[in-house]
Amino acid sequence: MSKDKVVLAYSGGLDTSVLVGWLQDKGYEVHCLYVDVGQPCEDRAAIMQKATDIGAASSEIADVREELCRDFAFPVLQWQAKYEGIYLLGTSIARPIISKACLERAREIGAVAFVHGATGKGNDQCRFQLAAEALDPTVKTIAPWRMQEFRDLFPGRTEMLAYCAEKNIPVKATASKPYSSDENCLHISYEAGSLEDPQVDGVNVIDFGMTVSPQQAPDTEEKVKIGFEAGVPVSINGEKKTPFEMVSELNEIAGKHGVGRIDMIENRYVGMKSRGVYEAPGMTVLYAAHLAMEQMTLDRDLTHLRDRLSPEVAEMVYYGFWYTAKMDALMAFIKEAQKPVTGEVSVALYKGNCRAAGWESPTSLYIDEIASMEGGGSYNQDDAEGFLRLMGLPLRVQGSVRPRQW
């Protein structure tokens, strides 16, 4: 009798290694998929071999780094979407593509379920499951941490390590860090542990992986020129780059200047507040450069409409509603809106700061002779008289009928 197949979003760490064994104990045929979203340099071959040694029926890698940057992160960048005005959504936007890769693998092998190791208290469980249900409602989502029988068996790290020893599952039993972290090519997030005390200065606790301390950054400012085509970042200092190359190279450049650190208390979708520390050097530069490019090329009313909708897009990404009709429509809108956002912006980096330092664009709406404060030019100040009389008409009527106390 054949076993039901499941696809496990596999990292090779303690939790997902335990899941391989536990799923087999439950009678499933386990297929591991390591979705490469730009995690730190690891021995990928060793991780895959470990899954096979544990008993996985298959172990594969899906390299989605270019797709993540091109089709997920950059459209969110075009929206200038930041959750609660601060968070650049680096973890949030990676989850729907991980689900997509796992569902594609499930379709290939005829799996009945997609399994992930997200806890039942965080946002990732929402992002994984909502994405999976939208992509293939016929495939069940299994979240062991939301199952009492799993939590009874593994209430903590000690029980997991004992299980691995019993099953001969190789794990690195190192001391716990004072926080947990999750990394991809877009950013690193840090949470839990000592960061759960809001009085702790997160910057002093964390061993940052992408950025140096601004105090230790170079004493000389560095300027970088970022090129855009229709709102999409395409070049660094005049050299064409792929989306992943754009992010990776800017991580290096901005990281050495201490750019892109964020410490915040945020509202999780499940209702609780949580503390998160993030570093996203490359994306911080791209957000700043993109906004500057829009200042020159995007008209006022369209910019303001985008700004009103941007928090909505950020919430949808953060909550996990990526694969929805509403998001499809919003993405169609932003693609059209971004067509004139083409040109180059110079960005100056210095000790944690990032600022625009020069603009040029073939589609610029900035016209010197109109904007000039000097006399002459093509702007006739006399025109403002009639304009302001019309704009002020309702105010004059109200003032005459309902005099204000002042």
Describe the fold and architecture:
This protein has 406 residues and is an alpha/beta fold. The chain has three domains: 5-167, 3-Layer(aba) Sandwich (Rossmann fold), CATH 3.40.50; 180-360, Argininosuccinate synthetase, chain A, domain 2; 372-397, no CATH class. Helix content is 42%, strand content 19%. It has helices at residues 14-25, 44-54, 65-78, 94-109, 124-135, 148-153, 157-167, 202-205, 243-255, 281-297, 300-319, 325-337, 368-371, 383-401, and strands at 5-9, 29-36, 58-63, 113-115, 140-142, 180-183, 188-191, 222-229, 232-236, 239-240, 261-267, 273-279, 343-350, 353-360. Strands 3-2-1-4-5 form a five-stranded parallel sheet, sandwiched between helices. α1 (14-25) links the parallel β1 and β2. α9 (243-255) packs across α10. The longest helix is centred in the C-terminal third of the chain and has 20 residues, at 300-319. The mean pLDDT is 93.
Output the keywords:
406 residues, Rossmann fold, Argininosuccinate synthetase, chain A, domain 2, 14 helices, alpha/beta
**What low-confidence regions span 5 or more consecutive residues with pLDDT below 50?**
none
**Derived structural class:** alpha/beta
Q: How many structural domains are formed by the residues?
A: 3
N/C terminus separation = 86 Å
Helices and strands, in order, run as: EHEHEHHEHEHHEEHEEEHEEHHHEEHH
**What does the overall shape look like?**
elongated
Strand content: 15-25%
Average pLDDT rating: 93
Total strands: the figure is 14
